[in-house]
Every structure is written in C-alpha cells, then in structure tokens.
Design brief:
heterodimer; A: 308 residues; mainly alpha; MetI-like fold; 2 domains; 13 helices; flat; B: 365 residues; alpha+beta; six-stranded mixed beta sheet; five-stranded antiparallel beta sheet; ABC-type transporter activity (chain B); ATP binding (chain B)
Chain lengths: 308, 365
C-alpha cells in the first residue's frame, strides 16, 4: 500500500531539446551548456561588481568615522585611523554625552512601536485574512495608504495636535506616531502569511479539542512565526530609521539617534567625522537584529501541511 | 459509534437569501457508511461541516446518538474529520499528529502510544512515524489523516473529499481500502464527494443533494434503478442517462421517426397531471442496436471505444437540434458502427424512466 511519489525537477530545464540532431556536429546540448556556463560567470562578475559598488557608501562612512578632523575632507583612504570620534560622540573621558541617551530613546521608541503594532496588527491581519466583511478591503487600503502618503503632509497638523495633547517630546507620543509607520507593514505582510495557512488546519484543531482561542494561539501563531520575525525586523528598521517624526515631534527628552547626529553639523564646525561615528553606531542594532533573526526568515515551515 | 440524525437542518450563509442547506432530513444508522454527493455548491460539504460543528445550524437540529449536538463545540462532539487537504499539523511528526487529539483528551501516555501504533500498523505507516508531513507523499499524507481519525475511536468519521488530491490510480485503490476499513471498524461514517463513482462504490446509502435540497437518499442500486427525479437520474450513472422531452399523443410518445407506446400506468399518471409531454430517460445500456424495421433511426456522431465497452453518441433523426448528440448507447465493442453511419435503436421495454417535465419528479413506478 505504501507509495512514494518522487518528483524530480530538472533545474537545467531543456536538456532534451535538440537531442535528435545529426551526430557529426558537436552535440547541441553541450554547446548550450557551455553557453550557459559563460552566461553564469558573466552574471557572477556583474553581481560582484554591483556588490562592490553598493559597499562604497558603507566603506566611505566607516572610513570617515575613523578620520581625524584634519583628515575628514582631505583624503579618501590614506589616513591614520583613530577612534577619537567614537570617544567624542560617546563622551568617554568627557563625563558622558547625550548620544547614549538618544540611542536608548531610539531603542525604546522603535521597540515600543513594533510591540504595539504586533499586539494590534497580528489579530488585525488574522481577521483580514480569514473574514471578509463590508468595507474590509477599504479598511486595508486605508491602512496601506499610511505607508505611501507623504509624512510631510501630516507633520504640521500632527505637531500642533501633539503640542496641545502634551504628547510633544514624550516616549508615548513617539511610539504612537511610529506605530503608524509600522502597523500597515505588520498587517499587510502577516495577512498573506495567514492566508497561506489553510483554514482547515484550524478546523482540524477545533475538532481535536481546541477552543478557537487555543487553535489560534497554539496552531496558527506558531506556524506564522517566521512571518512575525520577518515583519518585526522590517518594522523595527522602519521605525529606527524614521527621521521626520522625531525631528519635528521631539526636542530633547525623546529625541532619537537619527536626529541627534545633526548636532555635530551645527555651530562653528561641520564635523562629518563625528556624524559618521554616530551613524556607524546607530546602524548596529538593525544589523545585529538582522543577523540574529535571519534563520527565522527562512519560510517553508508550513509547507507540507497540505497538498496544494 | 452512534446513529446520526439531521432534523430539518438548515444553514443560511450570511448575506444570502437562499439556504445553502435547506431542511435536511437524514437518519444514519449506527455503523452505516453514508455518502453525500452532488455537484459543486449543492450543500454537501456544508451539511458535513454542520455535523462537525464548523458551520452553524440556523434552523433544525442535529443529533449524534441521543445527544443533541446542534450548538455543541466541534471538539465536544466526539467526531473525527478527514479533510480534503488533510490539514496535518506541519510542525508535528506523524506520531504526534495522530496522538494530538488524544493528548488534548488527557489520555494516558501508554494508551496513546498503543493506539498510534495500532493505527500505524493498520495503515502501513510504521516506518514513517518520525517523519514530518512535508517529507511524505500524497498517499502517505492521506493515510496519516485517516490515522488521525482512527486513533480517536470516535462516534463518527466525517470525510470531506479525502481522495480528491490523489492521482487516479491511487484514488481507486484507496477508495476500496477506506470502505473495507470502515466495515472493519464499524464506525458510522459520513463521506462527501462530488464523484458519483466514489459514491456508488463506497456508500451503504447515497444521499444526492442539489441546490441545498436532498433529492434522494437510498442504496446505490435503488438510486440507479429507481431515481426519484430527473436530477438524480441524470447525476447518477456514467455516461449519464439519456433524458429527453417527448410529446405524447394517444398513448404514444414520438421518438424520432417512430411512435413508441407508453405503458398504461404512465398514461394514467400523465392524465392525472394533465400533461401531454413527458421526460423520458433511458440508460445507455438499455438501448439496443436493432434491425431497420424495428427501432427509430439515428446517425452516429461519435464512437467511444473503451475496450470492454463502446459507446455510440447518436443524433435521432427527425429532431430539430441537429449535430448535437441526442442519445448515448452502450454497444458491443467488437463491431462498432462508423461515424456518420445510420443505425436503428430501440429502448428495451420496461427500462425507461418517466419524469414530469414540469416538476422533474418520477411518474412511473
């Protein structure tokens, strides 16, 4: 009774094409495979070139952050590296600086925004995936429009409202406004994850004795974990990188690291090297998070549940 | 194990005027294998899901044994379901998939393992107990889904097109295995399919649904031999029964170029209803090739040779819809006529089915 279905996918595709050609000539599939190899290495070379090109800004900023004041505008790569900029930005030996505080403010507001949008976005995405009701598509589109509407369009009324409500320069206010950025992302991405999960899976769990709530938390949620990890990372990066909201809605208390680097550009001196050091450190959290979360980004956990 | 009773069970989908299932009345015996069959959208899956508790019952009631389960949560109905997509938990291996419901029921670990072993033995799944669903073939997944139902030793098995994701050959062998397994376990089973061959071969009784309404519920043989209405007559049987409307004059129905006498009983029934037309149905095997003087004339449009049988698709001479095959007949495959040839056909006496052209209900007994 046991049967095994073996599906062999031939990645090279049409190797059989032209196999009935005259034997005297070089076999066409050989020629085509040589052409394929050539095309492959060409693709690799151009990808490598693009990779190097895309690294330029990163290398540039990294180098700049290691340059002294004198070197910052005069050389590209020939300089004696110094960590003085980092020390200055962090205020080491200088009784501390506000950079650390801004950094922490960034962390608190970004993580807060992600948590808020997950708490509301996960159930919303589930509902959007499973139920169709009057206006559900409009609702989702409105949510999406938060993503493509220019932030500048709302910034003036928003700052007036924030001033009046006492949300200006507060953590709550920042989390509130940043979750506007992250929530649509959470809902739209997770919705497609939920849609990929067959409803029958939950129904099977219901018949096996779970309540609806248990079926959601114990069957559905674990299966969309890769999606939640992916969307959390994305949402965090969006919140962390946001500039315009902290720039206009905070002054000192809840100011974030993206805005604080501007301080090095004011006054008597324009210190790009200090900005660079701040930027390099500010880029670390998303980078670390991405490395950490990478393994969850691999989808495929849910494959095999059903035959599509 | 228990009886199952639908008592005028009705389901309206939100926003729809017409019920998806309309006043369904079926009593299923203990240990019976009942098949719900019908075209897509006929309400067969909805009926099954109402029994499972996945769909509300808006009117009427459903009983399992003497328990009214109409409003009971799915998990408390003590029924096991096999889904079309199998719905195996992808993060659990085969053994865990099968044991999951038992775990939920707080069954002792030893008993759980015993039951999983036993089911795996029955279903030939022993080598795969540690595998995840994604590394199994379609047929194996199907058996895991069956195993998941078996281990629960439930009051009833509910199966929603469990074979439709298998390839044709596997479907046929699995079909007989499921039927045999059900007989052996003696668990009341409700099985949904759109495939009438599946319905006829598996069910003790078959319930035919159309547009949410139960058309007929009977043994496969009775459905075939005495369809209650024109819908059932046309749905059951492959190729389908020939059903055409004919005018009746002086106790004769005009079929092509020949008058055929109708039975006294049918004549009386037509008179009662005040009808001068009748829907006559005859199965392909009830139509014989005869000599030129005996039957009505038809020309062959298509010959289908299947080896054991051959089917002739003919158009009856003297009917206005030319070109469209009017009648299908099963013939001896040894000497099939050629396309375009003129043949003479006769319906075997007593093998015709008569239905009202107005209501579609059966007229003859």
């Amino acid at each position: 009774m046991s049967t095994t279905v073996t599906e062999t996918a031939d990645p090279s595709g049409s190797t059989a094409a032209g196999s009935d050609a005259a034997p005297a000539r070089p076999r066409p599939e050989l020629r085509s495979s040589r052409r394929k190899a050539l095309a492959g290495s060409l693709a690799n070379v151009s990808l490598a070139a693009y990779f190097a090109f895309s690294l330029i800004p990163i290398v540039f900023i990294l180098a700049l952050s290691l340059k002294s004041n004198a070197d910052q505008t005069t050389t590209y790569l020939a300089f004696s590296p110094t960590f003085e900029n980092y020390r200055t930005v962090l205020g080491i030996g200088d009784g501390g600086s506000s950079y650390v505080r801004f950094f922490l403010a960034s962390l608190v507001t970004s993580v807060g925004a992600v948590l808020v949008s997950l708490a509301i976005g996960i159930p919303a995405a589930y509902a959007a995936a499973r139920y169709r009701f009057r206006g559900s598509e409009d609702l989702l589109f409105t949510l999406l429009s938060f993503r493509f509407a220019p932030e500048l369009a709302v910034i003036i009324p928003l700052s007036v409202i924030y001033q009046q409500l006492g949300l200006y320069d507060t953590f709550v206010g920042m989390i509130w406004v940043l979750q506007l950025v992250t929530m649509p992302l959470v809902v739209w991405i997770l919705r497609s994850f939920f849609q990929d999960l067959p409803a029958e899976l939950e129904e099977a769990a219901l018949l096996d004795g779970y309540t609806r709530r248990q079926a959601f938390f114990k069957t559905v949620l674990p299966l969309v974990r890769p999606g939640i990890a992916a969307v959390s990372l994305l949402a965090f990066i969006f919140a962390w990188n946001n500039f315009i909201f902290p720039f206009t809605l905070t002054s000192s208390n809840a100011q974030t690291v993206t805005v604080s680097s501007l301080a090095f550009l004011g006054g008597n001196q324009v210190q790009f090297n200090l900005v660079a050091a701040g930027v390099v450190m500010a880029a670390l959290p998303p980078l670390v998070l991405a490395l950490f979360i990478q393994r969850y980004l691999v989808r495929g956990l849910s494959f095999g549940a059903v035959k599509s | 194990m228990a009886t199952i009773t639908y008592e005028a069970a009705t389901r309206f989908y939100p926003g729809s005027e017409r019920p998806a299932v309309d006043g369904l009345e079926i009593s299923i015996e203990d240990g019976e294998f009942l098949v719900l069959v019908g075209p897509s959208g006929c309400g067969k899956s909805t009926s099954l899901r109402m029994l499972a508790g996945l769909e509300d019952v808006d009117e009427g009631a459903i009983r399992i044994g003497d328990r009214d389960v109409t409003t009971l949560a799915p998990g408390r109905r003590d029924v096991a379901m096999v889904f079309q997509s199998y719905a195996l938990y992808p993060h659990m291996n085969v053994a865990e998939n099968m044991a999951f419901a038992l775990e939920m029921a707080k069954m002792p670990k030893q008993e759980r393992r015993r039951r999983v072993r036993e089911a795996a033995r029955i279903l030939d799944l022993e080598p795969f107990l540690d595998r995840k669903p994604k590394s199994l073939s379609g047929g194996q997944r199907q058996r895991v889904a069956m195993g998941r139902a078996i281990v629960r030793e439930p009051q009833a098995f509910l199966m929603d097109e469990p074979l439709s994701n298998l390839d044709a050959k596997l479907r046929v062998s699995t079909r007989s295995q499921i039927a045999a397994l059900q007989k052996r376990l003696g668990v009341t089973t409700v099985y949904v399919t759109h495939d009438q061959v599946e319905a006829m071969t598996m069910g003790d009784r078959v319930a035919v649904l159309n547009e949410g309404v139960l058309q007929q519920c009977d043994s496969p043989r009775a459905l075939y031999q005495r369809p209650a209405n024109a819908f059932v007559a046309g749905f059951i049987g492959s190729p389908a029964m020939n059903i055409r409307e004919f005018a009746v004059h002086d106790g004769h129905a005009r079929i092509g170029d020949r008058d055929v006498e109708v039975s006294d009983e049918l004549r009386a029934a037509l008179a009662d209803e005040g009808l001068d037309r009748v829907l006559l149905g005859f199965r392909p095997e009830s139509v014989d090739l005869v000599g030129p003087s005996e039957g009505f004339t038809a020309s062959v449009q298509l010959v289908e040779e299947l080896g054991a049988d051959a089917y002739l698709y003919c158009s009856i001479a003297g009917t206005d819809h030319a070109g469209d095959p009017d009648i299908v007949t099963r013939i001896d495959p040894a000497r099939p006529p050629r396309v375009g040839e003129t043949v003479h056909l006769r319906v075997r006496a007593g093998h015709e089915h008569a239905f009202s052209p107005v209501t579609g209900e059966r007229l003859s007994s």
